[in-house]
Design goal:
homodimer; Stationary-phase Survival Protein Sure Homolog, Chain: A; nine-stranded mixed β-sheet; 7 helices; about 25% helix
Chain lengths: ~260, ~260
């Protein structure tokens, strides 16, 4: 690849054929040399799964100056690892994942394969960004995303990110009015109010389908949910320290012998 | 189930037959009525995967007074959801996951199916604990774990946990000297220095196996890694807010129009 341009590793969790990935590739090719390693099938809600008990394979699909594309039988996190360790043999200048078909705001980050790939970048201290559109449709319109993706991508390439920190970017679906701009916000507190639909298969055996309604527990005006509801692009800086630091002193007396 | 006793939901990610699960069940039956819903096969390194595109099934394996056991074709997070929503129809008093065959300290929490089940409990605001032993062997010795599991389990049942907070408990493998006690600590900063072994299959096609060496980037004496290396049980309070709050003001000027 051309040494004067930044090298950008691109992946997603909706799979190599997803229109959201194509939109992200198109934006990234304006910013640098691009290596795509993406799952050969949809991998939504895979969380931070990593393949350790099965062999991983990659298939080279395209090889042009400044652009290579592989499909992979692994998860998004596997794709990021393979892209670095096997294809590039070094860290890329930036890792991007998406554009996810559907929101990864609030608690969705925990379940997201898109963001697992991005966290994998942060763990390796590579500037990394996840992009998601709040529209689950396969035929979603990604056209309005590009200026925001280019702006945030350029910022990250030019200014970097704090060590071991990545970005969770969610873009509102087009709703008739223009997106107002970017808000730097925190992850909203929300959950999925879930139910299982109980069905019988043709052999009369029980099975269950997960269904759920997203519910916010947070009326702050500094959250990703607030930004998206108000037609802003939400940018949440994300790290991988899950410690509830404020809880540590509260449990200190558990250290005592009985 | 007996209404006077607490109801405890038990799962794991090594699968329903794992000796670590049996050790945890044995401890939990001393504390309350127990419902086990565990994966029908090993689900290690599954992260927070949730099954949304396939039907879930459960198989009732045992049904005794105060004890029920189901195997499930889903992930640990699926098991926790099904246990609550389908089997119990309400929140249990406590959710426990493990005993994992292998450490979930430091960065391992991100990849861990054991801890995904526990985070799922925290998201629902149910007191939840993950237990792991720093020994990957199927034949690991879990006997010394029980007093610590009972002490921490009793503390959580009696005193509860702060809202939306769970515990990541790691227990050192027996190494000849007794475990010294419990330390309330933070998640150490560490990573896996990973390589892929490149092999050829009998059809001469390439494939890759993930291998890695755990590396600490943290010499703090207040971390889970420090506690384990010094033969203490590590207890990290965990939440699911991944926001790097200190980064928000640093990015504020990205909100400006160009």
């Amino acid at each position: 690849m051309n040494k004067t341009k930044p090298v950008i590793l691109v992946t997603n969790d909706d799979g190599i054929n997803a229109p959201g990935l194509r939109a992200l590739i198109s934006a990234m090719r304006q910013l640098g040399d691009v290596l795509v390693v993406a799952p050969d099938k949809p991998m939504s809600a895979m969380g931070h799964a990593v393949t350790i008990t099965a062999p991983l394979r990659m298939l080279l699909i395209k090889d042009e100056p400044g652009y290579r594309e592989y499909s992979c039988n692994g998860t998004p996190a596997d794709c990021v690892k393979l892209g670095q360790k096997v294809v590039l043999g070094k860290a890329p200048d930036m890792i991007v994942s998406g554009i996810n078909h559907g929101s990864n705001s609030a608690i969705n980050i925990v379940y997201s394969g898109t963001m697992a790939a991005v966290l994998e970048g942060a763990i390796e201290n590579i500037p990394s960004i996840g992009f998601s559109l709040t529209d689950y449709a396969y035929t979603a319109n990604f056209l309005h995303c590009e200026p925001f993706i280019l702006k945030i991508g350029r910022n990250v390439l030019d200014k970097g990110l704090p060590a071991y920190t990545c970005l969770n970017v969610n873009i509102p679906a087009l709703n008739g009015s223009p997106v107002k701009g970017i808000k730097i916000v925190r992850q909203a507190h929300a959950y999925w109010d879930e139910k299982y639909e109980h069905r019988k298969d043709p052999q009369n055996r029980d099975y269950f389908w997960l269904t759920g309604i997203f519910k916010s527990l947070d009326d702050g005006e500094d959250t990703d949910e607030w930004a998206l509801l108000n037609n802003y692009v939400s940018v949440v800086p994300v790290h991988f320290d899950l410690t509830s630091h404020k809880t540590i002193p509260l449990l200190r007396d558990w250290e005592k012998e009985d």
